Predict the structure of Integrase catalytic domain-containing protein.
Amino acid sequence: MKPEGRKAIDIEKATNTWFQSVPKNLFKSITFDCGKEFSNWKNISNMNDIAIYFADPGTPSHRGLNEHSNGLLRKDGLPKEMDFNQVNQDFISSVASKRNHIPRKSLNYQTPLEVFLSYVNEEQLSRLI
């Protein structure tokens, strides 16, 4: 998802919109870093009935999967210095699609998409499309 801006209200709106599009109780928690753009975390948590955690500052190991994914994205040609304000939703969706079709050892060599689909039924899936 691409928020309208980088302010806390923009992140809150985008996150809430995204949570409304996925089946309830599919996610139990989400972990944010300590950026000020996540300062509306209580509203997000309450509206979507989800636990929100924060990684300690300076400890990327608390978000190991996120850090690993960032490294893979950089290998795909998305440098750390990239200005994401210049990126559109189609680009974000194509990168996410590519990543969601790669089998993972941690998922028993299934793709993230296959695992996700195993948790939703046809009715829920039709609402996502």
